[in-house]
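TICKET #2291
ISSUE: user wants both folds in one file
ATTACHMENT 1:
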Amino acid sequence: MYFLLSNLSFIDVCQATFATPKMIADFLSEHKTITFQGCMSQIFFLHVFGGSEMVLLVAMAYDRYIAICKPLHYMTIMSRRVCTVLVGVSWTIGILHSASHLAFTVNLPFCGPNKVDNFFCDLPLVIKLACLDTYVLEILVLTNSGLLSLICFLLLLISYIVILATVHHQAPGGMSKALSTLSAHITVVVLFFGPLIFIYIWPFESFPIDKFISVFFTVFTPLLNPVIYTLRNKDVKEAIKKLRSQHVHSKQVF
């Protein structure tokens, strides 16, 4: 679990920083420009980290399934080798997902004005700038991103249903404990897929709220994930209680 969490935290750090420095620089600058190479880099990293995190969340759901439904076999099934393979698969899918987008984006003809109405280069908005009929490209982007998102979301939903059904069948009284164990993961999934669903319902239309959702998805969601898992961790809770009791005791002494 901690191995998968550490990789999730690494992806979150990368996702929160791939566009943030440029965004802050643009806030402080009157002329907000970015090179073509920089724009393509932002698109690439956004989809690498986003795709990798989706698959990693599925791997973490599988980890929770084994921990809750097969606790005696957990250490055997979820070995370091299996965890490494799962993380490797998540990164591989993320890179392939992103590369498939860039394969047809880098060679598009852009005639200008090349203005992206967002804080960073978002693929649907960049494609709209091309000097040709982008209908087929829009369908390809929607299919690529939508299919990966839908598959991961359905796998997560199925894993939750299987876990809760298994717990309810084997130990009816353990439902609340299972929900408590899953609560952090479910919260992270909702924070990740919530903005994603909204963005890809109308990916090629621009709305005023899109900028807020984009910033929330790329900056605040990755920053919230470690906090959520930290506050749900029993060891961290015990450490906080111990610090609090020491603080109260020191006050009483003085």
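ATTACHMENT 2:
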Amino acid sequence: MGLSLLEGFAKSLAMTILSEIGDNTFFAAAILAMRHPRSHVLAGCLVSLIITTILSAALGYAAPNLVPRDWTHHITTLLFFVFGIWSLWEGFTEDGDDDELAEVEAKLNADSKGKSRNKENSKDDDDLKKSKRPFLTQYFSPFFIKAFSITFFGEWGDRSQIATIGLAADENPFGVVLGGILGQGLCTVLAVVGGKGLASHISEKIVTLASGALFIAFGVHSFLSSADD
């Protein structure tokens, strides 16, 4: 079973890029960057993604200490095949490429409308609110917090996070963290700089099919490595 830093880095980088491009959090970052200061959105997204990547890798690293390594390897192999088949199925059955972008934009629009109504109804309490602001908003911009929270909760429990946990259980966790952070960073910068215009030109179908093929390839590689052992 290969535990090299380079192998973990390469697998994590490829998996992260193909999983995150066209993902909900990718579209959310692109839309937020069109509405708020890009530096705040980029910082919030990156900090959130770095934290989730490290937490995921830490969970994966701890797994072999709680469960026999052979079991974690077989579970990881199974997850790769499941995610691969799932992604291929989604890719072949998707009707259009703009559904997810439109869905994310609609959710963000609904949230912003609700907040704007609340602001209109409470203009007289501005001074009182400023003095009683939550602790975090006294040190971080609301745009940073918004980008951080949307990204963090959007990433938690999705395929890329679970796959990162599996990779860290089976590969060098430091390589997985480095590859994951670099992949997340590249995708986030692309989303923030390119904005909604770039996001709308990305084919979710092609990316989903490519990620499915990659997961299947990882599963085959993991299966063959266990057979060799």
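RESOLUTION: both attachments delivered.
EXTRA DETAIL ON ATTACHMENT 2: Residues 116-132 have pLDDT under 50 and may be disordered.
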